[in-house]
Amino acid sequence: MDSRAVLSGAEASFVSDGSKLSLKLSKAGILGASLTGELEASFDANAEIPYKIPAMSARLENFEASKIFADAKNPPASGVFEASISARGSGNNATHLFKYLTGTATLKSAGGVLRLLSPDTAAGATADIAGTALKITGAILDKNNGAISGIGDLVKMLSKLEYESVDLKISRGSETYNFDISSAVVKTPDILLSASSGAVLFNPDAPFSDYGLDIPVNICVFDTPARRVFTSAGFAKEKSEKVENAYDALSFKIYGTVSKPENDLMQALLGRRSKDSDGSANAVRELGSSIIKSLFKKKGN
Fold first, then answer.
1. Are 151 and 229 in contact (CB under 8 A)?
2. Taking every pair of C-alpha atoms in the chain, what is the biggest distance, in angstroms?
3. What is the Cα–Cα distance from 146 to 139, expressed in whole angstroms?
4. Is the dihedral of CA 161, 33, 38, 50 positive or negative?
5. Minimal CA–CA distance to 75: which of 111, 115, 110, 112?
6. Each residue's pLDDT tens digit, 175-189
7. Distance CA 62, CA 115 (A)
8. Are 8 and 30 in contact (CB under 8 A)?
């Protein structure tokens, strides 16, 4: 996403009495989406903090999510979103004012694609190799009721998910100015991914696209044929207390930045957790070593 994105084709009306401004944006384009909104602003040159926005509302429609990511070929998510925003704030100047706005936002999508393990990323390459290796290895020496090959099937399944809905609620307060996740739900016919905590981490010295991510995600699976893939890998055996007709499967963390998100899903599937991208490479090395040792041991016997 280009942090320098500006409005195009704007149509607005305003009323001003010198120190107060009421603005109505009836039409504008931004990153291919449609933006409308209203705000009330005031300026008092004698005040310690001269600029204030006591109320602002905005609505974004037909926004393609893939445009915020650096990887245009295989974006982590794609799909058309709409957003409703309510904000307020104050600042020393116009730039400061808008950077430190607080409030809430709701984002929704009625369908798209989620790429948790894209093949063009380190984690995705790991998943592709590991998924194939686990399936082959499982076919040769699986001693745990198909668990090894089951993980291989699960890796393939989770690499690319076609979702039917996304519902995301965000709040931003003046304590940290992080964009806190109030609730996030991504639903497919078989799987539900959810988060009720975590944040997009505010950095006053960076554009929004470079803000850090710290979001724990839970995966539940519905009682559909897809659940057998999870259970064969040792997951989704206990009923969820939070999601009706679903089973708790596993959790992972999203980190990286807004434009370049990463996750430790592969490590979670393999029973290993890491906070940096080197974890995927380490997991593959450990997996390869285990496979070789198991094959050698079997042959020796």
1. no
2. 90
3. 8
4. positive
5. 115
6. 999 999 999 999 999
7. 20
8. yes
Distance CA 234, CA 167 (A): 29
Q: For the chain, give the percent of residues with pLDDT over 90.
A: 55
Residue 254 near residue 233, CB atoms below 8 Å: no
Q: Which two tokens stand for residue 210?
A: 């470079």
Q: Angle at CA 245, nearest 5°, toward 237 and 193? A: 75
pLDDT of residue 150: 65
- pTM, two decimals, is 0.81
Q: What is the pLDDT of residues 258-293, one digit of tens each?
A: 999 999 998 888 774 444 434 444 544 455 445 445
- The tokens describing 186, both together, are 């991504």
| Coil/strand/helix, residue 94 | helix
Residue for token digits 């991510």? Answer: 213
pLDDT (tens digit per residue) in 35-93: 999 999 998 888 889 999 999 999 999 999 999 999 988 899 999 999 999 999 999 98
Using CA atoms, how far apart are residues 260 and 124, in angstroms rounded to an integer?
A: 13
Tell how many helices (H) and how many strands (E) occur in the chain: 6, 15
What is the Cα Rg of the chain in Å?
Answer: 23
DSSP 7: -
CA distance readout (Å), 150 to 12, 144, 294: 57, 10, 17
The DSSP element (H or E) to which 238 belongs, if any, is strand 238-239
pLDDT at 149: 52
Alpha carbon separation from 210 to 94, 102, 201, 245, 257 (Å, rounded): 21, 19, 9, 38, 5
Other CB atoms within 10 Å distance of the CB of residue 217: 21
Coil, strand or helix: which one is 294?
A: helix
Q: Identify whether the C-beta of residue 216 lies closer than 8 Å to the C-beta of residue 194.
A: no
Q: What pLDDT is attached to residue 272?
A: 47
